[in-house]
Amino acid sequence: MDLTVWRTFVTVCRLGSLSAAAAELHHTQSAVSRQIAGPERQLGVPLVQRHARGVRPTPAGEVFRHHAVATLNEADRAVRAVQDVRDGTFNRPLAVGATPSLAAGIVPEAIRGLLERAGSIRWNLLPGLSAQLHNRVIAGDLDIAVVTDAPPGLPHDPRVERRFLGLDDMVVALPVDHPLAGRGPVHVQTLADQTWVEDNDGSAALLRQYSARAGVSVRIDLTAADLVGKLALVATGHAIALIPGVLTGALRTGVTTLPLVDPPTRGIYAITPRRDPHPSAAPLLDQLATAFTPVRPTHTPHQPIEKDAHAAALTFHDSGTDTS
User: Fold this and answer.
1) Is 93 within 8 Å of 50 (Cβ atoms)?
2) What stretches in the chain show pLDDT beneath 70?
3) Distance between CA atoms of residues 184 and 259, nearest Å
4) What is the pTM (predicted TM-score) of this model?
5) For the chain, how big is the Rg over CA atoms in Å?
6) 58 touches 242 (CB < 8 A)
7) What distance, in Å, lies between the first and last C-alpha atoms of the chain?
8) pLDDT tens digits, residue range 2-13?
9) What is the sign, positive or negative, of the torsion defined by CA atoms of 170, 173, 176, 177?
10) Are 22 and 9 in contact, with CB atoms under 8 Å apart?
11) What separation in angstroms does the CA of 226 have from each of 31, 133, 201, 266?
12) How many angstroms separate the CA atoms of 259 and 191, rounded?
């Protein structure tokens, strides 16, 4: 499929109008319509639907748009790389991967530290789950990835170097008006009757393993598409969630955290390929080690729970916020 067609489709989706896309791309509107119709015939599904004020992608079109944007961005990077070689200014961008929680905090901070010390460096940041990032390092798509050993864990692969950055205590994300907000640390038994939300199998497995060791079974009644959606459900009072402590400083409005007694932890690691390392990968590793400061509860870890904490939690659970 011609990338020109992909670019036209992405432009139509962005502008929501065939005529506006035609004007921006210096095409006729009929030419834009033909370019959209081509992949629709090839794929066998409509990609856009007309409405009173223009067009919008269908569900299939939205999936196609997501991949088309990624493909076009990668194609643009390939062109720039070839131009750099042609012009004698080859400087391979540093490709950094990170899990969503780490991409929201310590990784950008570490990259800032790198740039302050090394000057201008071309780089890009690609979020993903640990297993995906591990595979991309092996494939040569990433020069460094910051991952965790949360379930299903990290494989021992001789093709990568692995550096331990530290342990991260998990905390509970609560709506700011939750009765337990500002308290803690609490035992997970206090929260067993709450409605929980999770956004991936690994995080859900960590929560279930932790609660099982405490002799309780938590209710993961809601599932979010990603970390952003998970925190949105917390902020709006639909559920509580287990989240990484490193995310505490990057929480959205409406969400606070509650420390746990003997919290589950996850190891944070940076992995790099053993062959053809990027020259900026090692300095970034040093910055990551500096940027990673595990969040620890300010309370004594084994401090007794307040007498009314369990009752407060049950009051919240029965107050109509449970959507299960």
Assistant:
1) no
2) 1, 80-81, 84-91, 293-324
3) 6
4) 0.62
5) 24
6) no
7) 44
8) 789 999 999 999
9) negative
10) no
11) 37, 16, 11, 19
12) 12
Distance CA 176, CA 193 (A): 19
- How far is 198 from 151, CA to CA, in rounded Å? 13
Tokens representing residue 92 in the block: 């391979």
Given the structure tokens 């959205």, which residue do they identify? 252
Chain position carrying tokens 């856009």: 48
> What is the distance between the alpha carbons of residues 5 and 69, in angstroms, rounded to a whole number?
12
- Distance in angstroms (rounded) separating the CA atoms of residues 8 and 14: 10
Tens-place pLDDT, residues 244-302: 999 888 888 899 999 999 999 999 999 999 887 888 999 999 999 988 865 554 433 33
Which three-class secondary structure string do you get for the chain?
CCHHHHHHHHHHHHHCCHHHHHHHHCCCHHHHHHHHHHHHHHHCCCCEEEECCEEEECHHHHHHHHHHHHHHHHHHHHHHHHHHHHCCCCCCCEEEEECHHHHCCHHHHHHHHHHHHHCCCCEEEEECCHHHHHHHHHHCCCCEEEEECCCCCCCCCCCEEEEEEEEEEEEEEEECCCCCCCCCCECHHHHCCCEEEECCHHHHHHHHHHHHHCCCCCEEEEECCCHHHHHHHHHCCCCEEEEEHHHHHHCCCCEEEECECCCCEEEEEEEEECCCCCCCHHHHHHHHHHHCCCCCCCCCCCCCCCCCHHHHHHHHHCCCCCCC
